[in-house]
Design goal:
By secondary structure, this protein is an all-alpha fold. The chain has six helices and two strands, in the order H-E-E-H-H-H-H-H. It has helices spanning 9-17, 46-50, 59-76, 80-109, 114-126, 129-140; strands at residues 38-39, 42-43.
């Protein structure tokens, strides 16, 4: 397997024992964020509303946040269309941020250009902790 020398010995050992036909290779399809989730009495949630690349591990997390926000809006009551619009208003900005960040991280992480890899790694090493902390807060601070 390509690039195994960069992994710790334990990981390399596991990968060496893995049969090639046991590996699943699928393309990652990047879907652009859609501008709305509420369509009258129909509401899109989870991947139907905001499918994201797996680079941040946020797919299921965002679906759980959707459920929490929808529950909160249902408790407030009102017409279903209004509940769905309130949900949409609360979720659009955050889910677009997560989806766009994940796509960006994927592009940076998956580059194969040796020069770009060196530049990327140097930037991440030099990045101030305050920027990393800000990104962390954007990801994990929610209104749910």
């Amino acid at each position: 397997m390509i690039g195994l020398l960069k992994y710790p010995a334990e990981v390399q050992s596991i990968l060496n024992q893995t049969l090639e036909d046991a590996l699943i290779w699928n393309d990652i399809i990047d879907l652009k964020p859609i501008p709305k989730y509420a369509f009258g009495n129909i509401l899109l949630l989870g991947d139907a509303a905001h499918a994201t690349t797996p680079n941040m591990g946020q797919g299921a997390c965002q679906a759980i946040e959707d459920a929490a926000v929808l529950y909160d809006e249902l408790l407030k009551g009102g017409e279903l269309n209004d509940i769905f619009l309130r949900f949409e208003k609360r979720r659009l900005k955050r889910t677009h941020f997560i989806t766009n960040q994940s796509a960006c991280i994927g592009k940076m992480a998956q580059t194969t250009n040796p020069l770009m890899i060196k530049v990327r790694n140097a930037i991440f090493r030099a990045m101030p902790e305050s920027i990393k902390e800000k990104q962390f807060k954007q990801l994990y601070n929610t209104d749910c």
